[in-house]
Design brief:
Sulfite Oxidase, Chain A, domain 2, 6 helices, single chain, five-stranded mixed β-sheet, alpha+beta, 278 residues, 2 domains, globular
């Protein structure tokens, strides 16, 4: 075992010990801060792990523990959310993937700070293996043709929100305009500030995958990805990139932000593909 991997293993052991001792401590916030610090330190050592398979295995182990912390925070957001319609919390059989529970609101989780953008700031670049590189503003996207899709939304932190009505343009229609080359098989989708995720082209071009600017009949709020976000309803929510800025078509699979940090490459909620190894 390398020095870096040994250090990560030691930090994970310390984090597990802190968590086991947590019920006996009187300050839950202090415990959370200590756990978050240990896991952040462990992540800082990942780049020094030379073995790629081991690095991804350790990244997955860290990600599982970070998700447990996030789930505690999300538990405080499951009621109705300000300025968001109340979602149903009962469902027909078969609508909620395994391991998920319903929320009436719309919890907010993302990497970095939300940008203070308006629709005038939208600039989507479609590049890579395309016949025509595109740079599209909001008006350009509207000209392609707006559609509505009502779909359920499933977050990797185990909450699901039913009956979201998204308004936007189908990614498939944008890709048609860009003339995707035959050798393209995957895409990296990027968003502000330095976020990205990987998607198979078939997932990105599904009929209900949108570049959305409205949710439940209202302009998409900044904290939920407005003025423009990707919506991939059949995959976990981290694939639905907020504040989207680029679609880059590739002939291979290239991991994005969370995939490099131990999340699953595919992210199918019905198969519980949360983390590497699931």
């Amino acid at each position: 075992m390398s020095d870096a991997s040994a250090t990560i293993a030691r930090l994970l052991k310390r984090a597990d010990d802190v968590r086991k001792a947590a019920p006996a401590r009187s300050q839950p916030a202090a415990v959370r801060d200590q756990l978050a610090g240990l896991l952040s330190e462990a992540r800082d050592h990942l780049d020094a792990v030379g073995d790629e398979d081991l690095r991804l295995e350790l990244a997955g182990a860290i990600a599982r523990r970070v998700a447990d912390l996030d789930a505690v925070e999300v538990a405080t957001m499951l009621g109705p959310s300000p300025e968001v319609a109340v979602a149903p919390t009962t469902s027909a059989v078969g609508r909620v993937p395994p391991g998920q529970h319903l929320t009436a609101g719309f919890p907010v989780l993302h990497v970095g700070r939300a940008p203070d953008w308006t629709r005038d700031d939208v600039r989507l670049v479609v590049t890579g293996l395309v016949g025509q590189r595109l740079v599209l503003g909001h008006a350009d996207l509207e000209e392609i043709g707006a559609v509505e899709r009502t779909r359920d939304f499933h977050c990797v932190t185990t909450w699901s929100r039913l009956d979201n009505t998204w308004t936007g343009v189908r990614v498939a229609d944008v890709l048609d305009r860009a003339e995707v080359r035959p050798e393209a098989t995957h895409a990296v989708v990027s968003g502000h500030p330095a976020y990205s995720t990987n998607l198979a082209l078939a997932d990105l071009a599904a009929d209900d995958v949108l570049l959305a600017w409205a949710h439940d009949g209202r302009p998409l709020a900044r904290e939920h990805g407005g003025p423009l976000r990707l919506v991939v309803p059949h995959l976990y929510g981290w694939k639905s990139v907020k504040w989207v800025t680029e679609l880059r078509l590739l002939d291979r699979d290239v991991r994005g932000y969370w995939e490099e940090r131990g999340y699953h490459d595919l992210g199918d909620p019905w198969r519980e593909q949360r983390f590497r190894g699931d």
